[in-house]
Amino acid sequence: MTAFCRAAPWLALALTLAAAPALAASGPPPGFVLTDDADLAFTSPDGATRLEQYMKDSGDWDVKWQVWARRGEQMTELKPEQGYGAGFRFTSDSQWLVRMQKTGSGEQDLYLYHVENGVFVNATRKSLSDLAWAYFYGRPETKHFARLDFHITANLLKGTEEAYRWLSVNWPDNRYLVIGLAGEYDKHPKNTVMKGLGGWRCRYDLRTGKFDVPEIFAKQNAQALTWEVKRE
Questions:
Q1: Rg (CA), the chain
Q2: Which residues make beta-bridge pairs with 63?
Q3: Dihedral of the CA atoms 62, 181, 69, 46 (nearest 10)?
Q4: pTM for this entry
Q5: CA angle in degrees (0–180, nearest 5) for 207-211-213
Q6: Could you check whether the bond before residue 45 is cis, i.e. omega within 30 degrees of 0?
Q7: What is the rounded CA–CA span in Å between residue 5 and residue 112?
Q8: Across-strand partners of 122?
Q9: Mean pLDDT value of segment 156-172
Q10: In terms of DSSP H, where are the helices of 112-183?
């Protein structure tokens, strides 16, 4: 009886440990290898976050990529997993991050992340590109614009770090993103090489989560709606 009493606390501890949930491993699962491509490595302006991209090739064109943000010893996956590596841009305050994700030949999506409790998390439920396209097709002058077939891209214009000073604007720092939308039609006149949408621009407000089209984009946007390349 005495021996059992001495063993009981240890038995209780063992049962407690067995019932406790296992801590999740920090980092990619087995089979994912860190790429050595320097063009796929990114560090935030404040130096606190380093982005690491890992690839798993299961053969038969089954390739998967994961992006992990490392802050000290902590690693957080930037969802979603994709079939290609990605490019990234930070805002100058290191609080926002945009993922420029290739999805196929000449096609690209955008994802937006924001720092919460010291780690980057998805800032929007839908991809930033899906939101931009919804805004495009919801505007009066574009809601009847024919749906594009291929080479559908959402691009983040360079300049997030400098608040787009190169556009000759005086916008607040770390406030806006400028997105360009483009794509092509499969069917077009025989005398035309390409036809579609040629770089229509809009602005996304990081503070309010809303889109708009500044007047400085009006001329280019009008031309983008009639974009085509004629055969010579």
A1: 24
A2: 57
A3: 150
A4: 0.86
A5: 125
A6: no
A7: 57
A8: 113
A9: 96
A10: 128-138
